[in-house]
């Protein structure tokens, strides 16, 4: 790193060797629900129970009721607002030790999906991304923004692609119930706005992390009531995938899907994934259980869990050392160029990339 131009580049290739970094088991410290109108409530009203069928040979039609699906509005621009609102209500719980100069204990605050994106970066050459960083009272908040290519993809989505995006939600409906031991009700129209989110706290090497993540289903034989027993919650991740017909498809699944599934699940301490394999017309025919630890072990030919974690650790260190000003002076925009490195641009607090709202910054 010699010239001033070079200082603004984070090289992807140099940043992932080494042993598995220390990572504390993530702890659930809170939760919220989002209803069908995207209103937030600080309860478990949207928590769903894992109620898989007894057999693995199934016939779940994911197109059932596809014309009455309620999708998220396209212009929804929530950024990290739900997480900030949770923090606003729970700041006492996560206050920093007075010996630090921070307001809150975590160094980094974000959604789990953003950390997944960072972790996949060394293996996902084609994907570009934009992550903005805002420093406030000693912590760095991270928020994902669409690239020009993301915007173009969204603008050009075909009806078939739209339907396929809804298949995953429909699958959840065949597996989850509102009460433990209940029967799934796949006749109900899916409302894709509804979700249940947890807040996790952990440490990756020296970085104290706090992140929110949407959870698919909880394993419990008993009805769980608010306040939920946070230390006992065990979640499962649900996924769909196309039926595999040859070695090339199996290799692609290990190389790409398994990496994403592992990152997403490992970050929230999930041990089990249930995958529904579907055909091209959206019928799930087979269910398969995967252990998250097996996924990492069996995919080593294609990617290493340690590399994903080391990359994340190194990138966060880079962010911590570059993000110096508070967000009322500077917002830091990191952009990963497809097949390239990560470039930093500093943008003013009046930019569209500024994402910490005035009400949040007014909290004392
Ligand atoms: P699949 O995972 O079966 O593809 P998640 O698995 O992360 O809980 O997401 C649930 C479902 O939301 C996905 O099911 C998919 O249908 C939809 N989904 C998630 N991320 C998406 C994205 N980036 N674009 C389109 N659909 C998405
Ligand atoms: Mg989910
Ligand atoms: Mg899922």
TrEMBL record:
Q: Which cofactor does it need?
A: a divalent metal cation
What Pfam families does the entry give?
Answer: RAI1
- InterPro entries on file: RAI1, RAI1-like_fam
Q: Out of the domains of life, which is the source?
A: Eukaryota
Give the GO cellular component terms, alphabetically. cytosol; nucleus
- Specify whether Hydrolase is a keyword of the entry: yes
Entry EC number(s): 3.6.1.-
One GO BP = nuclear-transcribed mRNA catabolic process
Which GO molecular function annotations are given, in alphabetical order?
Answer: metal ion binding; mRNA 5'-diphosphatase activity; nuclease activity; nucleotide binding; RNA binding
What protein name applies here?
Answer: Decapping nuclease
**Which species is the source of this protein?**
Fopius arisanus
**The organism's taxonomic lineage, starting at the top:** Eukaryota, Metazoa, Ecdysozoa, Arthropoda, Hexapoda
Q: Name the gene for this chain.
A: DOM3Z
């Amino acid at each position: 790193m010699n010239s001033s131009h070079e200082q603004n580049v984070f090289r992807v290739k140099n940043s992932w060797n080494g042993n598995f970094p220390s990572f504390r088991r993530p702890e659930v410290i809170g939760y919220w629900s989002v209803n069908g109108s995207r209103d937030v409530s600080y309860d478990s009203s949207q928590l769903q129970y894992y109620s898989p069928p007894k057999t693995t040979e199934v016939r779940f039609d994911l197109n059932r009721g596809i014309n009455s699906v309620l999708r998220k509005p396209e212009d929804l621009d929530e950024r990290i607002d739900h997480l900030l609102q949770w923090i606003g209500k729970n700041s006492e719980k996560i206050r920093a030790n007075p010996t630090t100069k921070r307001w809150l204990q975590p160094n980094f605050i974000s959604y789990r999906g953003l950390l997944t994106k960072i972790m996949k970066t060394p293996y996902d050459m084609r994907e570009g991304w934009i992550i903005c960083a805002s420093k406030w009272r000693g912590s760095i908040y991270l928020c994902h923004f669409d690239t020009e290519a993301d915007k173009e993809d969204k603008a050009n989505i075909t009806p078939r692609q739209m339907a396929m995006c809804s298949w995953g939600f429909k699958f959840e409906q065949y597996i989850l119930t509102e009460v433990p031991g209940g029967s799934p009700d796949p006749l109900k129209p899916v409302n894709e706005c509804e979700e249940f989110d947890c807040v996790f706290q952990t440490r990756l090497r020296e970085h104290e992390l706090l992140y929110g993540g949407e959870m698919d289903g909880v394993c419990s034989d008993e009805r769980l009531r608010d306040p939920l027993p946070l230390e006992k919650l065990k979640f499962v991740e649900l996924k769909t995938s196309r039926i595999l017909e040859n070695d090339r498809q199996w290799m692609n699944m290990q190389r790409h899907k398994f990496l994403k599934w592992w990152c997403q699940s490992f970050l929230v301490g999930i041990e089990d994934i249930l995958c529904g394999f579907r055909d091209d017309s959206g019928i799930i025919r087979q269910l398969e259980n995967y252990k998250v630890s097996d996924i990492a072990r069996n995919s080593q030919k294609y990617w290493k869990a340690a590399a994903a974690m080391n990359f994340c650790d190194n990138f966060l260190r880079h962010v911590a050392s570059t993000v110096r000003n508070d967000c009322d002076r500077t917002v830091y925009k990191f952009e990963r160029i497809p097949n390239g490195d990560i470039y930093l641009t500093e943008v003013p607090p009046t930019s569209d990339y500024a994402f910490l709202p005035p009400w949040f910054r007014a909290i004392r």
